[in-house]
Design brief:
The protein is α/β, with parallel strands linked by helices and 339 residues long. It has a domain of 232 residues: Rossmann fold. 41% of the residues lie in helices and 17% in strands. It has eleven helices and twelve strands. Helix 2 packs parallel to helix 4, helix 6 crosses helix 8 and helix 8 packs across helix 11. The longest helix has 24 residues. The N and C termini lie far apart (51 Å).
Length: 339
């Protein structure tokens, strides 16, 4: 039977970014007893505006700082008597990891190590959050498993690691650190590996916002190679409810895959987006589709990702949005911002 964990004071890392800010909104709205400390270094991918309109702003505090700053992390754990760490902060753009891998090593590996050591010192050595269960939840990616062939079954929690890019390699390393701290020191952890997220508040450099903006501005829509690469698309709001379910009901030490069974070729996704944007802005569909432009494939580009999310669904979670509904909602969120 899965453990039951009731977080009351969460340190969330990377909570001003895409997934993190959506998770802040979800947690504050869904649990009126929860207090949340949001630690974010506020890189280009973060935005304070993402945190406006919270259901109860008094239960959320944003701290600008680095997860690799041990003194700061120690102080936050003590001052807020943190019983739960949800670790989302990461450098995550594959193209950026190819041209500048050092930042990915520093944030994703050194940063994770720092958090683990701080959690170990606070919970296991100092006895912090006494009388409560504690949990370190590490959010990772399906990219650590490498890629799949067209007919291969989807990834499971037991799939061997085979990362392809500096980004996925750094995330794989962080996953291994979390498991090692659990095995060696007894740190109470859970892990999750998710498929590609989409939805509101995503940085404009990612594929779906790039396509929407290009349609609006009538610029070429870049598609790598022939657009044959396949991804499983998960709405960020569904990812947030999955994280919440795993933190509260996941079994200590276990890993959970989170996906939505929405595998699409990149080219098919782009064409769907073009049609939706054309409808929403009243433009001729063929004109928008004509913006698609094939560009040189990036090095080491994984062919296909797909995940078996049955273990997470066994916790009582399921994706609430259909792909068509979620994609149209996403387009409508971005259009006034790109107008």
């Amino acid at each position: 039977m899965a453990d039951v964990h009731r977080p009351r004071s969460i340190l969330l890392t990377g909570g001003a970014g895409f997934i993190g800010s959506n998770l802040v909104h979800h947690l504050i709205a869904s649990d009126p007893e929860l207090r949340l400390v949001n630690l974010d270094v506020m890189t280009y991918a973060a935005d304070r505006g993402h945190l406006e309109g919270l259901a109860d702003p008094s239960r959320h505090v944003l701290v600008e700082g680095d997860i690799a700053d041990r003194e700061l992390v120690d102080r936050l754990l003590r001052e807020h008597d943190v019983d739960t760490i949800v670790h989302l902060a990461a450098e995550s753009h594959v193209d950026r990891s190819i041209t500048g891998p050092a930042a990915f090593v520093q944030s994703n590996i050194v940063g994770t190590y720092t958090l683990l050591e701080a959690a170990r010192a606070w919970w296991l050595d100092a006895g912090g959050a006494a009388g409560r269960t504690r949990r370190f939840h590490h959010v990772s990616t399906d990219e650590v498993y490498g890629d799949l062939g067209p007919e291969d079954p989807p990834f499971t929690e037991d799939t061997p690691y085979r990362p392809s890019s500096p980004y996925s390699a750094s995330k794989a390393a962080s996953d291994h650190l979390v498991r090692a701290w659990a095995r060696t020191y007894g740190l109470p952890v859970t892990l999750s590996n998710c498929s590609n997220n989409y939805g509101p508040r995503q940085h404009p450099e990612k594929l779906i916002p790039v396509v929407i903006r290009s349609c609006v501005e009538r610029r070429p829509i870049p598609v790598y190679g022939k657009g044959e690469n396949v991804r499983d698309w998960l709405h960020v709001a569904d990812h947030c409810t999955a994280i919440d379910a795993i933190v509260r009901r996941g079994e200590q030490g276990e890993t959970y895959l989170v996906g939505a069974d929405n595998e699409r070729k990149n080219l098919d996704l782009v064409r769907i987006l073009c049609r939706v944007v054309a409808e929403e802005i009243g433009a001729p569909t063929e004109e928008i589709l004509g913006l698609i432009s094939f560009v040189t494939d990036r090095p080491g580009h994984d062919r296909r990702y797909g995940v078996d999310g049955s273990k997470t669904r066994a916790l009582g979670w399921s994706a609430a949005r259909s792909f068509d509904e979620g994609l149209r909602e996403t387009v409508r969120w971005y259009l006034p911002r790109f107008a």
